[in-house]
């Protein structure tokens, strides 16, 4: 198996007809993976970087595109509460099942607005201060990502950050083994290793950002096998 080039094979979760009960198990397990393998920590670092660079005063508005089940936004809420930073959170996802799950899981504990829409069709009265995505970019082709990077830049007032997977043989074999042994979700067992094959190496991000004319950018490798990309306007 070669990981020199990104795979464009579709993940099972990309199917619009996945039963809701299966999505629930998938979202719950992704939250565990993000917690145990440092995904939420990477998100907090990206947010901290932009907040420190911008020195925000007052309420900070943060939007996540491809928010899935809302676990990343919940992690951000806890971080901002600890820092005593007033905030407004927005979660955007085009899958109704994901928005339904997020509302059911976090509706009583989160100060968030949930929008069921393709992110490209969202109309802001006032653009968010910060827009970000986590494990979202690898669902798109390189051509689509160039347009997405431009959208992120145009639709954020302070800047944006991205948290996504490093395409690496060790990451592929490790997540393949872990999900085989511990996952109860057929979606996770199939999609998690494939997500790594659809992930990125540093030269991918350098090329994509240059094509989108979104520079300068901070591209930082993170444990466990992730890349954090931060762009401040």
UniProtKB/TrEMBL annotation:
Q: Name one GO molecular function term.
A: methyltransferase activity
The Methyltransferase domain sits at 62-153
Keywords, A to Z?
Methyltransferase, Transferase
Which Pfam families does the entry mention?
Answer: Methyltransf_25 (PF13649)
Please give the CDD domains that the UniProt record associates with this protein.
AdoMet_MTases (cd02440)
- What residue ranges are annotated as transmembrane? none
Mind listing the GO biological process terms from this record?
Answer: methylation
Fetch the InterPro entries from UniProt.
Answer: Methyltransf_25, SAM-dependent_MTases_sf
- What is this protein called in UniProt? Methyltransferase domain-containing protein
């Amino acid at each position: 198996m070669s990981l020199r080039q990104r795979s464009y094979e579709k993940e099972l979760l990309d199917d619009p007809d996945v039963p809701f009960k299966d999505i629930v198990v998938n979202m719950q397990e992704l939250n565990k993976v993000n917690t145990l393998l440092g995904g939420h920590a990477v998100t907090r670092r990206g947010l901290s970087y932009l907040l420190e660079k911008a020195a925000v005063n007052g309420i900070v508005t943060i939007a996540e595109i491809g928010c899935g089940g809302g676990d990343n936004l919940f992690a951000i809420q806890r971080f901002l509460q600890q820092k005593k930073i007033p905030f407004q959170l927005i979660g955007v996802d085009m899958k109704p099942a994901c928005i339904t799950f997020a509302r059911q899981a976090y509706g009583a504990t989160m100060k968030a607005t949930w929008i069921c829409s393709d992110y490209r069709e969202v109309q802001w009265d006032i653009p968010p201060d910060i827009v970000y995505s986590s494990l979202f970019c690898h669902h798109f082709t390189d051509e689509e990502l160039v347009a997405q990077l431009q959208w992120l830049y145009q639709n954020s007032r302070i800047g944006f950050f991205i948290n996504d997977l490093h395409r690496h043989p060790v990451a592929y074999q490790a997540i393949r083994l872990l999900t085989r042994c511990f996952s109860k979700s057929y979606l996770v067992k199939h999609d998690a290793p494939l997500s790594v094959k659809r992930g990125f190496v540093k030269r991918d991000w350098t090329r994509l950002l240059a094509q989108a004319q979104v520079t300068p950018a901070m591209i930082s490798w993170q444990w466990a096998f992730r890349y954090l990309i931060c762009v401040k306007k």
